[in-house]
Design a protein that fits this description.
The protein has 522 residues and is α+β, with helices and mostly antiparallel strands. Strands 1-2 form a two-stranded antiparallel sheet. The longest helix is centred in the N-terminal third of the chain and has 12 residues. Among the domains are: 56 residues, Double Stranded RNA Binding Domain, CATH 3.30.160; 125 residues, Double Stranded RNA Binding Domain. The protein is built from 19 helices and 36 strands.
Length: 522
């Protein structure tokens, strides 16, 4: 076969027509021009393919799924999605690809080569297409327009993804859980939930992530930078998504509406999770104990119960946490930040749940009801504690004396009897206390504050327990009853004093108590 050689670079070609086209690479000649947009091409074939952008013609059809393409090579590459063929292999790491260009782009991750440079800001790119898209951030060009709603995009891929909002099409389906997605990128990230793959690694602490955005956000925890700032309230965020979500607190926008109960949401993910409360769907399963969850984040947190991992550490007190949300709330103990404010009384809270519970003091709402006695509660936690009064369950045990408790915080307070720990200190007189409530009540000695007022006689009190005892004078309530003779009392102290008439126990003289207290203080 006769070969034709290029005089400029020496390349050999099989025909004179191929040589002619090849020479145009050196001369820059593009004799074929599109009469619709003016773009020029070296060959008539490339002009024909280009014209299909304008006509919308897609003559190549996939015989498996029916998807159509404007180019035969586009169909060839697409078929590999069905066959799983990845004929292009990286000779450095062995990773395989379905397309030659993807392999070329991948090679640059090894070499660090970024040959495409923006002449406006100097930023460099490993792919020509990325440079093209980047330039549009400077020019503002958005050449791709949705024919249904008119929204414009800088990339054709973004337009394709957007169109699926209108059509509802979700062409990417997970063969492990059946969940489907409208975007290939979202599908790829989702697959990592099942495979456990975390290809993005922090070069400072070694922590790995399944998503590039998560790594970028994580980097901010090392440098403390929150690059996304709200122009309305100056609150800053690690991620653009966090800022977008925050903006909706100002605008009140809630574009996602549940068609089952009408509840609206400001964020698509919250809407998705909410729908599962109707369907009962829990697609995330623990491979160690089989427990299922409606959210991937809940599964991630749950796994740490098995592993004991606590990746969030406070740099102020050294305490570590298994959940990011718990860590964030803990930090507010040190900073004093209380970002949640009641719009009725102005009281502020460090936690959203605390604000929700507080609001019920204004509305009187008690949505949690005991199925045994009908008593209602404003908080789910109070109901679960109350239910133990029926069952007698006391799951918290002191490892020093064996005493059991129905509440974890009661055990914590009890353990301080053994340790003598008094972590709450008065900043006016330095007296220390084992309970926060005792410190609050003590402070009122200095301030003279008496926040508890009797609406029957107007008498005021500095602590709630004294106030409760006082109200029983008016109501006649005597909740403390003697087990020996059934005599009832309005205070626990009155019952204790009465019990001595049965036991014969003599009360400790006041001067002895004072000596004991003095010795304990010394």
């Amino acid at each position: 076969m006769e070969t034709h050689h290029c005089d400029t670079c020496g390349k050999s070609l099989s025909s004179s027509s191929y040589l002619k086209q090849h020479i145009m690479i050196h001369t820059g000649e593009k004799p074929y021009s599109c009469d619709l947009c003016g773009q020029t091409f070296r060959s008539a074939n490339r002009l024909r393919i280009h014209s299909r952008i304008h006509t919308g013609e897609k003559p190549y059809s996939c015989d498996i799924c029916g998807k159509t393409f404007s180019r035969s090579d586009g169909l060839r590459v697409h078929r590999r999605i069905h066959t799983g063929v990845k004929p292009y292999s990286c000779d450095l790491c062995g990773k395989t690809f379905s397309h030659a260009s993807h392999l070329r782009d991948h090679h640059m991750t090894h070499t660090g080569e970024k040959p495409y440079c923006c002449d406006l800001c100097g930023k460099t790119f490993s792919q020509a297409s990325n440079l093209k898209y980047h330039r549009r951030t400077h020019t503002g060009e958005k050449p791709y327009s949705c024919d249904l709603c008119g929204k414009t995009f800088s990339q054709a891929g973004n337009l394709r993804s957007h169109r699926r909002i209108h059509t509802g099409e979700k062409p990417y389906s997970c063969d492990l859980c059946g969940r489907s997605f409208s975007k290939a990128a979202t599908f790829i990230v989702h697959r990592r939930i099942h495979t456990g793959e975390k290809p993005y690694s922090c070069d400072i602490c070694g922590k790995t992530f399944s998503h590039a955005d998560s790594l970028r956000s994580h980097h901010s925890t090392h440098n403390g930078k929150k690059p996304y700032s709200c122009d309305l309230c100056d609150e800053a965020f690690f991620t653009s998504g966090g800022l977008r979500k925050h903006h909706m607190t100002h605008t009140g926008e809630k574009p996602y509406c549940c068609d089952l109960c009408g509840k609206t949401f400001s964020h698509a993910s919250n809407f998705r999770y909410h729908r599962r409360t109707h369907t009962g769907e829990k697609p995330y399963s623990c491979d160690l104990c089989g427990k299922t969850f409606s959210q991937a984040g809940n599964l991630k947190s749950h796994r740490r119960i098995h592993t004991g991992e606590k990746p969030y550490s406070c740099d102020l007190c050294g305490r570590s946490f298994s959940k990011a949300a718990t860590f964030i709330v803990h930090r507010r103990i040190h900073t004093g930040e209380k970002p949640y404010c009641c719009d009725l009384c102005g009281k502020t809270f460090s936690h959203a749940d605390s604000l929700r519970s507080h609001r019920r003091t204004h509305t009187g709402e008690k949505p949690y009801s005991c199925e045994l006695c009908g008593k209602t509660f404003s908080h789910a936690g109070n109901l679960s504690l109350h239910s133990r009064s029926h069952t007698g369950e006391k799951p918290y045990i002191c490892d020093l004396c064996g005493k059991t408790f129905s509440q974890a915080n009661t055990l914590t307070l009890h353990s301080r009897i053994h340790t003598g720990e008094k972590p709450y200190s008065c900043d006016l007189c330095s007296k220390t206390f084992s309970r926060a409530g005792s410190l609050r009540a003590h402070r009122r000695i200095h301030t003279g504050e008496k926040p508890y007022s009797c609406d029957l006689c107007g008498k005021t009190f500095s602590d709630s327990s004294t106030f409760r005892n006082h109200t029983r004078i008016h109501t006649g309530e005597k909740p403390y009853s003697c087990v020996c003779c059934n005599k009832a009392f309005s205070t626990s102290g009155g019952l204790r004093k009465h019990n001595r008439t049965h036991t014969g126990q003599k009360p400790t003289p006041a001067h002895t108590v004072r000596i004991q207290v003095k010795e304990a203080t010394i």
